[in-house]
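Q: I have four molecules that I believe assemble together. Could you output structure tokens for the complex as a whole instead of separate predictions?
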Amino acid sequence: MTLLLSAHDCDGPGDARALAQRLSALQAGRIRRLAILGKTEGTATLNDFSRELALNAATAAVRNVLGEAMLARTTMVFSTGCEGVITPFGYLMAELTEDAPRDPAGPARLALGVATSPAIPVADRGGRAHALAVAEAVRAAMADAGATADQVALVFVKSPVLPRRHLAELPPGVAARAGSTAFARAVAALGAGIALGEVDSDRVQDAAIGRDTTLHSRRVMAVSGTELAHNEVILLANIPGAGGDLRLESEPLADILDAPALLRLARRAGLAPDAHGLFTGSAPEALFLKVGIRPGGQLRGRRTTVFESEFDADKHLRPVASGLVGAIFGTTRSFISGGAEQQAPPGGGLAAMVVRG
Amino acid sequence: MTLLLSAHDCDGPGDARALAQRLSALQAGRIRRLAILGKTEGTATLNDFSRELALNAATAAVRNVLGEAMLARTTMVFSTGCEGVITPFGYLMAELTEDAPRDPAGPARLALGVATSPAIPVADRGGRAHALAVAEAVRAAMADAGATADQVALVFVKSPVLPRRHLAELPPGVAARAGSTAFARAVAALGAGIALGEVDSDRVQDAAIGRDTTLHSRRVMAVSGTELAHNEVILLANIPGAGGDLRLESEPLADILDAPALLRLARRAGLAPDAHGLFTGSAPEALFLKVGIRPGGQLRGRRTTVFESEFDADKHLRPVASGLVGAIFGTTRSFISGGAEQQAPPGGGLAAMVVRG
Amino acid sequence: MTLLLSAHDCDGPGDARALAQRLSALQAGRIRRLAILGKTEGTATLNDFSRELALNAATAAVRNVLGEAMLARTTMVFSTGCEGVITPFGYLMAELTEDAPRDPAGPARLALGVATSPAIPVADRGGRAHALAVAEAVRAAMADAGATADQVALVFVKSPVLPRRHLAELPPGVAARAGSTAFARAVAALGAGIALGEVDSDRVQDAAIGRDTTLHSRRVMAVSGTELAHNEVILLANIPGAGGDLRLESEPLADILDAPALLRLARRAGLAPDAHGLFTGSAPEALFLKVGIRPGGQLRGRRTTVFESEFDADKHLRPVASGLVGAIFGTTRSFISGGAEQQAPPGGGLAAMVVRG
Amino acid sequence: MTLLLSAHDCDGPGDARALAQRLSALQAGRIRRLAILGKTEGTATLNDFSRELALNAATAAVRNVLGEAMLARTTMVFSTGCEGVITPFGYLMAELTEDAPRDPAGPARLALGVATSPAIPVADRGGRAHALAVAEAVRAAMADAGATADQVALVFVKSPVLPRRHLAELPPGVAARAGSTAFARAVAALGAGIALGEVDSDRVQDAAIGRDTTLHSRRVMAVSGTELAHNEVILLANIPGAGGDLRLESEPLADILDAPALLRLARRAGLAPDAHGLFTGSAPEALFLKVGIRPGGQLRGRRTTVFESEFDADKHLRPVASGLVGAIFGTTRSFISGGAEQQAPPGGGLAAMVVRG
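A: Yes, here they are, computed for all four components at once.
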């Protein structure tokens, strides 16, 4: 199998012209899987509909170009919020079927697996049952990719929020999770962590979710959505003998300003530094960033207003990360997502990049 | 004369405890001028009142610690908006009276001048008359500092917005400026440019303001306010023989992601790079950033949503700049201001730092 | 011809289940025209996408239930913004083909006409050419309905906004209209006024649009959109001998609190008052409200913060009107739209209702 | 004792000119108590500072006009948020010292009592201890007014929010209350209910607060603030023989559209209806409204987006209520506050007015 990856910019939340172009360049007959990972503009508040719109547009583009059958082999995860200088765009990943089996002695190359969990009942969202469903789906995605837990490089999970409109029907303990994108991300991360062997399943109890900061996965980026009831998983693994020429490298971020981690990651991935020691002239094939901030909002020993302002924390974090990425890589095109609950120690995050060779 | 500079964090928009502490460390009898330049949290929309609150708190702190007389010698400019990871804080600058006159053969050191224009009539705001009043005030601040136009290193101007509530009473041409912080900044920058000899006064006509992108000053940072009717000017000049050990260096930013410009500025100012070639270990005494983006919001050849989103452009730009500054200097404490109308070519900006020696 | 009208609530911006149900109750073969007039939730800022989503969902519902051919005979106008207690919903209007011609001696009954203008070039939007294109479209809708100007009871126009992203390419005079929903509504109202003989075409010059408050139509409700480039017109006329049992009555609102006008309108339309003299027990078939406020925001001699706050004026006006309507009619279901530029004298508005018999 | 009441509009959050005028009309020597109850403009999000600004301005006005000693006898409660058509304004209540004791056989007239609780420790906020502190303060205010629980007509409580910045230091159960204005109001209402004998103290346990909807007071309006750590109480009682000519009448609201309740209240209070049966020509001396909506946001059997939108529920409710009040009373000047947690059954609210005679 060979994984191809390309990027496409969007002229608006309903624009899939560049995506259609990328799709039409593929040989439909050789495609085993398609995955689309996109940043869509929008308010990124709970009433945000750009996700549905992006989904509609992308669905229509796939259907128009490749047909209904390909749509069934396509997984899409959209993250809303392009605050700052994030260009609305998407990554298209296509895994091609190859004649030859994987050679275990070959170089480790990027392979793709996907899975979808069943719908999570409203009252289970943000709780242990939700996490276990994610774990199951991540295991299915590993099987789909033919990857062992050790080979998994990065897992994207899109996880459903418990809508606030159900508040009136919920028991108190569950009601506290209503409208919380943080809980939706936390269970997704913990579920993935269970599947990857990084998190002890027994410790993922309702009382620990979103609170026990010693629990976290190191290879997951979780986003939440209000437009879906199930969990979507896109899994990337570096597998010996997988075809193509891509691999994924990642690096934890100590905090949202951890420029040295980005520089280390770029050097390790083999990018060439520019005259200033930055990487403005040699962009990776894909760049993913998950950022968070400590509860309370302290950073580098000083106060920020991330949790004490007119808008949600994510809307502070995403534009900051776009400044960090832009400073180091000179680009506005990266998959930046805010809210790293149980995807890193408090205040930490994760950076990952796909490179050739 | 000797200029002293210190920074003080704020625990809230009404918090002046650290400022009071800094003030009490000064010898009141030796102070010729005080200037306070602060970033205050708040919504930074037109209904924002944190500026008044910060002003009230700072005023009270000065009065309590140094007395009513010192208050008359104090100039305050607050810029609202700490989106992203900007710590609410302020710089206190105190110019001391010295016995000896300046030695023109001495090293160039930082000196301070301040001025206030008369109140700008509502119908004049954002127009040529407003710009000329700023020019006059900047000339007065130069005189106050004993500086020639060439010696001026940086001018801060706070300029009054034309409130939207006057819409009904205004002629159409003027009404277009109502509620526009951009026009308030543009006239401030052009006025300062006239005084500094960088902008031809004859070209500063109503039709050119906010539109003629060939006109701009290179040594001004303009902020707008709704809490004042006059213009406040704080001027910093590097003057041979001025006392103390501070100087100010500046560097134009090609755009809001211009990390190389920050690295150049830091090196030129004499800061020591860290192992990564960044400056996370050697912060300057003060750091000022003015950032903008092209009309339309294009950056590095790609689309951004800065002008097509739920909130004002400034709220996108400030957090991005906080990510840029944090990446290079590892700090959340810098004076970042969005909106560089006629303070730079379209899309450009300005960085400046105060260093010792 | 007979006009049928029904309402359908929406469970979310992408929900068209109730609409599909209403559609399936119609006999497709007898339908000459369909018109859908909807209120969709969303942020109603320039980046709002709920309009596109509603359009997609409604389009799909019509196509699924009635087929592609009917879609071509369907006109949709969505107004975004359900702030306050406005239930997201829509009115479906279906005009049936009848065997018999209209009897000019028959009672005046409601008839429907629709039209679409060509796309308005970006540089023309908000100017005289835009208004003239609307006038042309309204005349076409009159012809479609078989109505004279006198018979027209109410015209809905959806009109394209000049997107801010074009700012950089526009001449100054035109740039002032960029991002302005007010200009989009103003030209729509003036264009309709020209077609209805209420506004003198010669006076609709660029300098007068949005400014000359003596110009206004009395029978138009204009909404603006960023998701379209052309103008959509839905026209309702009371025509002698038109079939069915509906008619439309309207009443100007002196201001957004003009409860007496609503009471007068309800009585004139024949609704039965309740014990308190309100109309909480006898809702009309459809209720339309267009509300505005004076420039400056004064109301009943007092200050409001409609133009001096964190969010756009429309977001203040819509919820207020939902309180007014709810107080008088005891319902959360009405088509409320903010921004009455040149649809009424400054501060005024318009109320209209469809009733039986 | 005689209670005087007047209203004063504000030209901005820092404007106390009209208040100063009202104050200067009083005979300082005869004043026993001053209370100021104000609506201030602002964003009404957690970072809102207009409250502090209003407090500063009002404090300065009292000090300047009546002196430091009177300031100590003055209680101020500000509620932020003038969305819709609420004029920023305040009510000034002054209770004068009289020579004669109250005549128990005299007519019931309005009397004023005030109290302040000690500061509520951060970890106690929103919990039982907070409620008990409010109960104590309300009892103190009753004693101050010389009122029995039965005579109390209305209690205003301003109650401190648990700031989100303390999140990191709090146990899970308490952390759930951080940043919640709802919890701050709930404990205030329950505490007042305990003091008034309407709520059983034993049932006010942490698990019940904000959740047990069978618990509520009927004579309290609770507002929350982030600018204070203690609770402020302003209590109004109708007491036989109290001087002056004012009395307070109140009426529960079944929901936020309960116009009939307002009509009943106005008639009972003795106001004269206009030709339409409304009360647009005979405003009360003061008008107070507390409104809420059911969890989930259903109203009159239909969906609203109050809990599923870009901004907080309060920002939907206040402008709706301003439309309701404006429809019935034709005024923009009333004390409208959103969030009726445990001040009414779910979805309900409270209206009250002060009238003469």
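A: One point stands out. The first strand of chain B starts at residue 2 and ends at 9.
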